[in-house]
Amino acid sequence: MDSLSDEIESVLFLAREVMVYQVPPRTSTAGYKAADWNVEAFLWKGRLRVLEDSTSGELFAQVTYVTPWTQVEPVLDSSRYFVLRVEGEGGKRAYIGMGFAERGEAFDFQVALQSVAKRTSATTSNPAEPSKPAAPPKDYSLKEGQTFKINIPGREAKKPTNSNTSGGGGGLFALPPPPPPGRKR
Predict the structure, then answer these.
(1) Are 98 and 19 in contact (CB under 8 A)?
(2) Range list of β-strands (E), 123-174
(3) How far is residue 101's CA from residue 37's CA, in Å, rounded to a whole number?
(4) Distance (Å, rounded) from C-alpha 105 to C-alpha 48?
(5) Where is the NECAP PHear domain (predicted)?
(6) Which domains are delineated in the chain?
(7) Distance between CA atoms of 170 and 151, rounded to whole angstroms?
(8) I need a labelling partner for 19 at 20 to 30 A (CA). Which of 32, 90, 138, 169 fits?
């Protein structure tokens, strides 16, 4: 790159038609409802691109999306409408409604926002650390002479018997003892 001001454009979502609405003040702490808006009388209608280079294209409003659902909030009564918190120069804030003509586009918009949140949290939790060499894999194999015991609840392991009348096993989990070392058969 030639300079630090070069930016990379990454378009995660594009909707051909969205509507922007004037939102009345929130009446409860629960959230906004699209039924409180006049969805037939939108303020603006146009194309929406998520994460575009801010130096190109004419923008109606720009929302900086940092953490999930702080600048973009779904409404309580519809999956197609959202409330956006836009900030102007001087720190002034305004809340506007945004609606999609199709539910599928609204769903894709939510997926794009979640993708941004996931990317943001991944870069902030692991900021350009040099990668550490991986630890050698642990060896969980049994070494010669090692044994282990498995207890299954509700079943008792039967102890081996010295009697040959039982057929030699003495139970499902009991085996006859091994011959003493050094003795050949």
Answers:
(1) yes
(2) none
(3) 15
(4) 11
(5) 8-152
(6) 13-125 (2.30.29.30)
(7) 17
(8) 90
In the numeric block, the tokens 């999609």 are attached to 100
Give this prediction's pTM. 0.55
pLDDT at 115: 79
CA distance 83 to 79: 12
Handedness of CA 49, 52, 54, 58 (dihedral sign): negative
**What are phi and psi for residue 106, nearest 5 degrees?**
-65, -40
Integer Cα distance of 117 and 174 in angstroms: 56
Query: How far is the C-alpha of 48 from the C-alpha of 50, rounded, in Å?
Result: 7
Q: How would you write the pLDDT of the chain (185 residues) with one tens digit per residue? A: 455 556 666 677 888 889 999 998 887 788 899 999 888 899 888 888 765 444 555 555 666 655 556 788 899 999 999 998 887 777 788 889 999 999 999 999 888 888 777 776 776 665 555 556 666 677 777 788 888 777 778 776 565 555 554 454 445 566 677 777 775 65
